[in-house]
Design brief:
With 392 residues, the chain is an all-alpha fold. The protein has helices at 2-10, 27-32, 41-80, 84-108, 116-124, 129-199, 204-267, 272-296, 299-312, 325-329, 331-372, 377-387. The longest helix is centred in the middle third of the chain and has 71 residues, at 129-199.
């Protein structure tokens, strides 16, 4: 029956089943390599646990950033709610700071190294610049790695699709050859049989030789077709694996890109290299500023006075406003600050919601796995305990 089925397959067009995959994260796949291949449900649970843990950590970091932005907003509300007398005092000190910064800027901006806005930004980042550099480098490196993986997997997928098309073409040619060869052989046998009957000639040997040749060619075709079918199925498996891995890249790519774009917007840059350039120019300029401040000596005094006054009024992070003195003077500048904070909060909310959805989907999928495969409950429980995850 196996041989007959194989012969039948030669004349039956191979049907390609299209599989659909849900997007998953590639973190654990790239880290584990092949060591979880073939473990079935346990590997699925482990992957979902990785997804839940990654999403949870992402949300924790995002919420810290969200709370910080919200704290800035609360400080704005505190400042705007102060009495006219206190506001006037704050504006008076802020104007002096702005004037000194303008004079300082005129002193060392003769070559226009970087803008005043970028200078103030770099001032505000002095305590965290190394951390920002490290985070941006990690994110940009990951971005390049993910894009390289996606390009490689797309090439693998296209290669397997081309190979499958080539195999189908070879199978079609083999079917056509067998049909033509069989038809010609059958006509030849019939012709010889008719000739033998009309001329009373013994043509049994030629007929047997033709039949033997037909059987030999059929056997060769069966083996060839079987090898092609095996190659086709192997190619399908490789293509499906490439698709699966590409799908797993998607979540990591979205998270990484969203975080990177948020930081780019936050610092008003397009790359880590640009921020490094701004920092290098800032260091040159700040050296000139220090030389100038030795002569003037007033900017620090007014900055400390503003910081103390704001702190006494309930502002949680008063030092930020030393770099935002214009917003304390000009309401239009304050509106711009609030708009920027609103944009940042909206992006953070979207990222938090996205990761919360990932977390909940992971928990839901694990519950579904337990419903479908209750016999694996103990194994799944052990896997979940390693991640400290409770699906109840």
């Amino acid at each position: 029956m196996g041989l007959l089925n194989t012969v039948k397959d030669i004349f039956t067009k191979t049907e390609v089943t299209e599989e659909k995959f849900e997007y998953e994260s590639i973190d654990s796949v790239l880290a584990r390599g092949e060591r979880r291949e073939g473990q079935g449900m346990e590997a699925d649970v482990a992957f979902k646990c990785d997804q839940i843990v990654d999403a949870t950590y992402q949300m924790e970091d995002l919420r810290v950033e969200y709370e910080m932005v919200t704290s800035y907003f609360n400080d704005i509300q505190t400042i705007e709610g102060l009495s006219q007398e206190v506001r006037a005092e704050i504006m008076g000190i802020a104007k002096k700071i702005a004037m000194l910064e303008t004079e300082t800027s005129a002193f060392f901006h003769s070559d226009d190294r970087i803008s005043d806005e970028n200078f103030r930004m770099m001032q505000g980042m002095e305590g965290e610049i190394s951390e920002v550099f490290g985070r941006l480098k990690d994110l940009e490196d990951m971005d390049m790695k993910i894009k390289r993986d996606m390009k490689h997997l797309e090439a693998e997928k296209s290669s397997q699709e081309y190979l499958q098309g080539d195999i189908e073409e070879q199978q079609a040619k083999l079917r056509m050859f067998m049909t033509i060869f069989g038809t010609i052989s059958l006509l030849l046998v019939i012709t010889l049989a008719v000739v033998a009957a009309l001329t009373d000639t013994n043509l049994l040997i030629p007929i047997l030789l033709i039949l033997l040749l037909v059987v030999g060619m059929a056997a060769l075709s069966v083996v060839t077709f079987h090898n092609l079918s095996y190659s086709f199925k192997l190619s399908e498996m490789k293509e499906n694996r490439a698709i699966n891995l590409m799908n797993k890249v998607k979540i990591k790519y979205i998270n990484n890109t969203s975080t990177l774009e948020y930081l780019y917007d936050k610092y008003g840059i397009k790359s880590l290299r640009e921020l490094e350039y701004l920092h290098d120019q800032y260091l040159i300029m700040i050296d000139e500023v220090r030389k100038y401040q030795k002569v003037s000596g007033d900017l620090r005094e007014f900055s400390e006075a503003l910081s103390k006054l704001l702190f006494s009024c309930g502002v949680k992070d008063p030092d930020i406003w030393i770099k935002q003195s214009l917003a304390l003077i000009d309401n239009r500048e304050m509106v711009e600050v609030k708009h920027s904070l609103n944009v940042r909060r909206q992006k953070l909310r979207e990222q938090i919601a996205y990761n919360e959805k990932l977390r909940l989907n992971g928990l839901r999928d694990i519950r579904e796995m337990l419903k479908t495969n209750p016999e694996l409950r103990d194994q799944v429980k052990r896997e979940l305990e390693t991640y400290h995850i409770n699906v109840q």
